[in-house]
Amino acid sequence: MNVSTTEWETRVNLAACYRLMPLFGMSDLVYNHITARIPGTDDEILINPYGYMYEEITASSLIKINVNGDVLDNPHTDGTGVNQAGYVIHSAIHSARHDVGCVIHTHSRAGMAVSAMECGLLPITQTAMRFKDITYHDYESVAIDMDEQKRLVADLGKQDAMILRSHGLLVASASVEEAFNAMYWLEMACRAQVDAMAGGTKLVIPPQAVVDKTHHLYQPSVRRPFGIMEWPAMLRYLDRRDASYRN
Prior knowledge:
One of its GO terms (molecular function) is actin filament binding. By secondary structure, this protein is α+β, with helices and mostly antiparallel strands. Helix content is 38%, strand content 14%.
């Protein structure tokens, strides 16, 4: 495949992210999307071919589009293209947030459960406190309406995570590595909340000062950008199982 070294590296990391999601229970058949901005560009992003399961994604199978929806490179000659709903959500964020290098959207069981709770994500675990300032977007039906883009962007604001009410989860991070880490821990926070609430006992909510301190310690500029250090281990985890994502 005739692409730059930086684009190929992004393709490999994005394909790895796709492969990791089902291994940790965060995929939804052929649905959902993970997009990555090609370094050095403002408007070029990579997205999965619609109809492929995450475990099938490889670096060379990803489709390159711009934020206007134009297909710049599609290796598939069988009519395989891009899901409109994925384009609407992801292109809106990539267009508005040039600090975002990767967007992940999921329909996980726990994520959908918390998205349907009026209380939203509660700061009942250290993991959930990382997302103290998570935002919310009200459900407007299947995301194929271009007019919804402005509301998605407004609701996300400058945050790196959002719960789509009655829908699922979304993270927007500087890199693929950081995005996977954020989504993994957001998913774990949702699973823990569902489990705790299912127990039927009163929940413990730490003092606000503790919640604020914990949230602060998870900020990228405080200790480290979470996901970068962990990524080589995630690639080794994949390589021990199936390294074909690199193709």
